[in-house]
Each structure stands twice: as C-alpha cells, then as structure tokens.
Amino acid sequence: MKRRSGCPVSIALELLGDRWSLLIIRDLMVRGFQTFKEFQESGEGIATNILADRLQKLQQAGIITAEPAETDGRRVNYRLTEKGIDLAPVLLELLLWGARHEETAAPCALIETLEKHREAFLAEVRRRWQERDLTPLIPKFRDRSTARTAKRVRRSG
C-alpha cells in the first residue's frame, strides 16, 4: 500500500480513519462481538457492503483475524490480533474525550471510573482478549435522550 507520507498519524489514519473500522474494533474489544451478524446488529446502522469491506481491510492490515467457528466451520468468527488489541488505549481515550466534550449516553459513573482506573481497565481488556473472554466489558450506550450524560453532569457539578 502506497502511503501519503511517512508520518505515523497519517499512516494510522489510512488504516483506521473511518468511523466504521473503529466501531468494529470497539465491538470486538469491549462488547465481545465475533460475527458479521453481531456487528450488523450493533445498532450503529452499518450497511452490509461497508461492513464486509471494513472487515476485509482490517484483516489485510493485520488488526483482526478471521477463523472458522468451533461449532460450525462454515461460520466465521473475527478476533483482534496483538496489533488490534494494542488500540485499547486509543479507544479508551476517544471514549473519555467524547464524554468530556460532547453530550453522550455514557453513564457518568462509568466515565469517572474509567478516568480514575485507566490502567486497570486496559489490563482487563487485555486479559479478556488473551483468555478469549467474550463477556461485554462496557454496556451498549442507549439513546442519549434517555440517559444522564457525563458532559451535562460535569457542567452542572
């Protein structure tokens, strides 16, 4: 792949510079998703052709791998590689930045816990990845109109 430049930020953005790739990585990392169907039903509204394209690009970049499901060899399960799991600190900081500066549906208590215990959270992400533990680590955030938001609470607090 020809690079625009040798800048590490530019190279990272060439690989991850669209919302869908990072959301797929998020779902693999903290929601325990593995299958095309789970990504498609995540609530983000990704079209099937876009999802298929992003999964292929993430595989080509070495960020995820595809393996046959143990129970049904015709089904494919996706998994982060070491390169992919190393994005955990980036995703955590994006989550915290978004909650700090925008109105979100992230519960205030969760954001405060993540801010105070970054290293413990990242260690748990890595442990779950190593042990193939698919238990969701963070909840699916509901519609922002139904939740108190971190930004709103911080402004009034």
How would you characterize the overall build of this protein?
By secondary structure, this protein is mainly alpha-helical. Helices cover 55% and strands 6% of the residues. It has nine helices and two strands, in the order ααααββααααα. Strands 1-2 form a two-stranded antiparallel ribbon.
Short description:
With 157 residues, the protein is mainly α. Helices cover 55% and strands 6% of the residues. It folds into two domains: 1-81, Winged helix-like DNA-binding domain superfamily/Winged helix DNA-binding domain (Arc Repressor Mutant, subunit A); 87-157, no CATH class.
Instruction: State which percent range the strand residues make up.
Output: 5-15%
Number of domains: 2
Q: Return the CATH architecture of the largest domain.
A: Orthogonal Bundle
Q: What's the total number of strands?
A: 2
How many alpha or pi helices?
Answer: 9
Largest sheet report: 2 strands, antiparallel
Structural class of the secondary structure composition?
mainly alpha
The secondary-structure element order is: HHHHEEHHHHH
Low-confidence stretches: 144-150, 152-157
Q: Which fold does the CATH topology of the largest domain refer to?
A: Arc Repressor Mutant, subunit A
**CATH superfamily of the largest domain, called what?**
Winged helix-like DNA-binding domain superfamily/Winged helix DNA-binding domain
CATH domain class of the largest domain: Mainly Alpha
Q: Classify the helix fraction into a percent range.
A: 40-55%
